[in-house]
Amino acid sequence: MTLYKEMITKGIYPDTYTIPYVLKACTKFHALNEGQQIHAHSIKFGLNSYVYVLNTLTRIYAVCGIIPYVQKLFDESPERDLVSWTTLIQAFVKMGLAKEAIQAYFDMCRENLRPDKMTLVVVLSACSRLGDLSLGTQIHENICDIHDIYWDVFCWQRIGCYVYEVRRCGFSSGLKPESVTLVAVLNASSNLGSSSKESRAGLISEAEEFIANMPIEPDAFVWGALLGACRVHGNVELGESAMKKLVAIEPVRDGAYVLMSNIYSSANSWKDMLKLRKAIKERKVKKTPVCSLIEVHGIVHEFRKGDKSHPRNEELRKLLEEMAIHL
Fold this sequence. Notes:
By secondary structure, the chain is mostly helical. The chain is built from 18 helices and two strands. Helix 12 (179-191) runs antiparallel to helix 13.
């Protein structure tokens, strides 16, 4: 942004290549204010009608969760390519608008645009969130009609719809999916909710059987997906087994311990949770620090618990103390 501002100051105006690159930088840091300035410049210099510029503009508003701007830019775009539609769908998914995402996908298909792998993964994650069997089947039929399906995408389309059928059809065909595919199918055990305890237990058992019959060695992503499913459905015994496998692969990461601690807590297994916390201390597992970000006058400030490295730390501490008095 500094170089861009310097360029403008010297009377050098941006073109259709400059604007997208600057917007990508803004998107990376969620710099909405700067992105809006670039948006204004694109209008000022007559660049806002180019699809590449519009796509990067749409992207920053999507990342920042401003759906009305995303929709407005998309609707006003004189030309819409695959990236335009994928960005719109991804924005809907990000904001939890799964139905709108899937509707946008079908609208895109009516425009005779051929979805790529990224588009399919995004829209199928929306299908997963809904856990709608009939809709999943509809997506499946639509994709099979218009796309040369790769095995991993073939699995993705069934997320949250019919795990057993994917495993049976896929593995019996001799095809070897990658770990991302397997994680996607395992996530169905979490996303397919059920009011029946027996049905939920069945889904977890299916996931366990799925791993046992995998044609590749389960990695941390696979065990993490299973552990996550155990947390959702409260399966302590299988959760412990998955945690051990995950810890064996990633002994110093805290994710497995945090998930297992949540499982124990939900099951009121307080003694087991205390034992787990003791093990965390003994093994000196470091927690991944949580941070918060705030943008002030174009500068992004990052804060972590116990961190005193900020140059205005003392000033901030005094301000917090003053605020605490009035709370």
